[in-house]
């Protein structure tokens, strides 16, 4: 009888689990020089709610630039001087040690040290006092520290990704950690949600909702949960994107007929028209210096990407290959533009180096959508179809390393990578 | 039976609490609030870091709307916004019906098939909606009674990627609100 009850218990737990609690991450491709790193079990980790060392290692390995070196529980912490020869023998070039200790007030003291195993040098360490809710974040910050010290680039492990899911006629807008954990639903609706866009300071998301049976634009404060109806003009309101100073958004409105670009104060009010054409002008994206707007226009007969001054005016064509180029995304360092190009009927992610105009196609999939750069400009997240299901993928700029983030149930789309937190 | 009830009740309680709770971990009383994977209620807009939820008014339900019995969909060829002659009588019938009553409000809802980007298709759907709106205007229907909106590829009438399904999705619906 007890066994039967236990089985019922397990079954009910499984069926009631919230869907999309985490991504399944499959890394594919051949990394260039993968740096071998060992992350020792942190002292005190066994009794901590989060296994800090596992999170750090998973972050570094997922970037594709590191190879994990296994080690047994060695009793090291951030104060120990590890025996480098032991770790050299295991094949590690670097080592992270640390500890996590529960404080009297219920918070946790997380400390770590990074070692150059080959030179036997201390590369630095930090400590964090965090609530239980922020334990994962402290691990991500450790991974960022190691990543930056060892590669010279800023890590994005502490950043967030926003995306939309659809499961049996129900849409949800989510914000999750960059590793897919801690997914929290910002908004749910029986009608579609599209085009989420992060404010530059990471506190707000703009998005398009069809809940009132037409597309309207909301801005949603992530911290307070309050949202503001930004644009509900006559006709359709869509494609929101924030100006880099966070004070205004460029949007697509059909209030004057057709689809045209307008600038709208972040607090709402009367929009200012930016584009003047008799064609479709949509999908605005600011250059990181805020001086130009890239956008999609079919003024030449088919959708291509153009750029114009942020105050509007004449436009200059940017894409010339093929007859269907849409969804521009600019890298935060200003060097690159990612976009979607239709090639032989397939929709494929491309990356253009803006200074030279050189273009690369970097995916093998056929239904790519919605590219968005990581804030360190080194990774792109996009939506695609994989084995018949919608999935999010991240890729390195050369396309060599990809991680697939597949939701557990239903479809997943419209990713937007959040900024570095200030 | 009672035992069963308690077991299921306990299981539901356990799993309702959060995404990262494993069966063998001890639930910890934490005053600062654990970040949980919340399933938002429809129409509720949520805070992310805290558990505050502010309800969002879904709007008034519409009063009984009178809509005519004749066909209310105009279909389009791929990549086209041209209204084919076979739909002219439908449009004329709607024009007459709308003009009968100044209080009648109509949404022209444009749609595309599922090929291509979401925002560009939203703009294409908008063109299809405006094509029908313009046709109605030319027949004397006042602008104030018409609104052209687009659903792009978000609300297909028929699922499927063969041409017969897609041709049923390239459309403008005439909906009385």
Any idea of the CATH topology of the largest domain in chain A? Answer: Neuraminidase
CATH topology of the largest domain in chain B: 60s Ribosomal Protein L30, Chain: A
The CATH architecture of the largest domain in chain A: 6 Propeller
Question: Gap between N and C termini of chain A, in Å?
Answer: 56 Å
Characterise this structure.
In chain A, 12% of the residues lie in helices and 44% in strands. Chain A is mainly beta and 422 residues long. Chain A has two domains: 23-151, 3-Layer(aba) Sandwich (Rossmann fold); 160-417, 6 Propeller (Neuraminidase), CATH 2.120.10.30. The radius of gyration of chain A is 23 Å and the shape is globular. Chain B folds into two domains: 2-54, no CATH class; 73-176, OmpA-like domain (60s Ribosomal Protein L30, Chain: A, 2-Layer Sandwich), CATH 3.30.1330. Chain B has helices at 2-16, 88-99, 118-138, 163-169; strands at 45-46, 53-54, 73-75, 106-111, 146-152, 171-176. Chain B has a four-stranded mixed beta sheet with strand order 3-6-4-5. In chain B, strands 1-2 form a two-stranded antiparallel ribbon. In chain B, a hairpin with a 6-residue loop joins strand 1 (45-46) and strand 2 (53-54). Chain B is globular and about 50 Å long. The chains are: A mainly beta (422), B alpha+beta (177). The interface between A and B is large, with 73 and 65 residues.
